[in-house]
Write a structure and sequence with these properties.
Elements lengths: L1 H5 L14 H16 L5 H4 L7 E5 L2 E5 L6 E5 L5 E6 L16 E3 L4 E7 L6 E6 L9 E3 L12 E2 L3 E6 L2 E3 L11 E3 L6 E6 L9 E4 L5 E10 L4 E9 L14 E9 L4 E6 L5 E5 L11 E8 L2 E9 L11 E6 L4 E3 L3 E4 L12 E9 L4 E8 L7 E6 L15 H6 L1
Antiparallel strand pairs: 1-2, 2-3, 3-4, 5-6, 6-7, 7-8, 9-10, 10-13, 11-12, 13-14, 15-16, 16-17, 17-18, 19-20, 20-21, 21-22, 23-25, 24-25, 25-26, 26-27
The structure holds fe (ii) ion.
């Protein structure tokens, strides 16, 4: 919001806007001056980005970013989105930021989320009750340094955090680099904590060499809770993640953690570069079969695939049972699965629609596209030309008219 008003970047950004010591100091001075004059108060008003994801829980639709409170938004009767303001879930303790991928247990209405910071504790976990009230922080001091954690996994009994090789080193600013970078000498780990824990006493960590999880697609428990299964994307070429995300070789994996033996097994789900995986939302935190994922091409999502996880083998293999490429010059967004009969418990898992936005650079037009998720070529059954271009984005949310009317 602030940068939009000014027309140029003001705030030092860990991803892009560090260009050496002089530029960083200049930005800090300008930011400090704006804080002193009262024009900019991030503690009170936040940063206003809210550009990473959208979630619905606690009776709100929330726009989220990585380092801010969620912003509650509302749809007006004529289709506009208005911002209601930052939302702190009526927290009983200071609460200033959370990340953009909270997890909702639709059976209980509870949500689980976290924040990561540059000072101890580097990770803080918390839950939001079904009445929309945030519960006390669980500070994770066994996280011994900052690690960028974009997403995590939650099952009926556990929360699982990736501790990645993406770290913070302020000295890198002196070299004109972002303070966020990759430490190849660090072994990635996964931290497992009971999801209702009040402190970190029962948390344990497991090494996960070569596993830098980016997005969790789904996670559940098997064998009475003795095994945790996580379907997630892994950044294989981690050193490329800040330079060329399309070269970072994102791959989907099924990760199985043996809770008693404290061991991990991994199963590749595709040899293609895939991310932004989604499922039928009725299966969140439950064992599911189908994953729909974006095919990542050069600087764009070039298509979508449907994977059948019942075909998983230790050695990989082709789990693809349907796919669609958007065509030359066309880039899509995150796919979303919408069940055809959401209130029919007997409906098949893949009986529904895949939605996405597709931008065609040949015509400079965007379309809202609806695909049949059961068809082998993900047939387009509706395409709506939009009045203006929709830029490629990160994440989205489908909210039915009935749910919207309840909010
Ligand atoms: Fe994300």
């Amino acid at each position: 919001m602030l940068e939009n008003k000014m027309g140029y970047p003001i705030l030092p950004s860990p991803f892009a806007s560090f260009n050496g010591v002089a530029a960083s100091i200049a930005r800090l001075i300008i930011t400090f001056a704006r804080v002193v004059t009262g024009e900019f108060n991030p503690l009170k008003h936040g940063f206003g980005a809210a550009n990473t994801s959208v979630a619905q829980f606690g009776g709100k639709i929330l726009a989220l970013a990585e380092y801010d409170l969620p912003y509650a938004v509302k749809l007006t009767p004529d289709g506009d989105i208005i911002t209601l303001g930052r939302h702190d879930f009526r927290s009983c303790e200071p609460f200033l930021t959370m990340t953009a991928h909270p997890k909702v247990d639709w059976d209980t209405g509870e949500a689980f989320a976290y924040r990561h910071g540059v000072v101890r504790p580097f990770l803080t976990f918390f839950r939001i009750n079904s009445d929309g009230r945030k519960q006390k922080d669980v500070k994770i001091f066994s996280m011994d340094r900052f690690s960028a954690i974009h997403d995590f996994a939650v099952t009926k009994n556990y929360a699982i955090f990736p501790n990645t090789q993406i770290v913070l080193n302020p000295l890198w600013i002196l070299r004109g680099r972002s303070p966020l970078g990759v430490d190849r000498s660090k072994v990635p780990r996964f931290g497992i904590i009971p999801r209702f824990a009040e402190d970190e006493r029962e948390m344990w960590w497991i090494d996960a060499p070569g596993l830098n999880m980016l997005h969790c697609v789904n996670s559940w428990e098997e064998d009475g809770g003795e095994r945790i299964v996580i379907v997630a994307s892994n950044i294989v070429s981690i050193e490329q993640v800040f330079e060329n995300i399309d070269l970072s070789q994102l791959r989907l994996e099924k990760i199985v953690i043996d809770v008693k033996a404290k061991t991990m097994e991994r199963y590749p789900l595709s040899d293609k570069v895939l991310d932004l995986g989604v499922i039928n939302p009725a299966y969140a935190m439950k064992k599911n079969r189908y994953v729909y994922a974006a095919v990542i091409g050069v600087k764009a999502v070039v298509g979508v695939v449907k994977l059948d996880m019942s075909l998983t083998t230790k050695d990989g293999g082709d789990l693809k049972v349907a796919s669609r490429l958007y065509g030359s010059g066309c880039g899509g967004g995150e796919p979303l699965f919408v069940p055809r009969e959401p209130s029919n418990p007997a409906a098949e898992e893949d009986d529904g629609y895949l939605l996405t936005f597709v931008y065609d650079e040949n015509t400079d037009e965007s379309k809202f596209v609806v695909m049949d998720a059961k068809s082998p070529s993900l047939d387009i059954i509706a395409a709506v030309k939009l009045p203006r271009r929709v830029p490629n984005g990160f994440h989205g949310l489908f909210v039915s008219k009935r749910e919207l009317e309840k909010l």
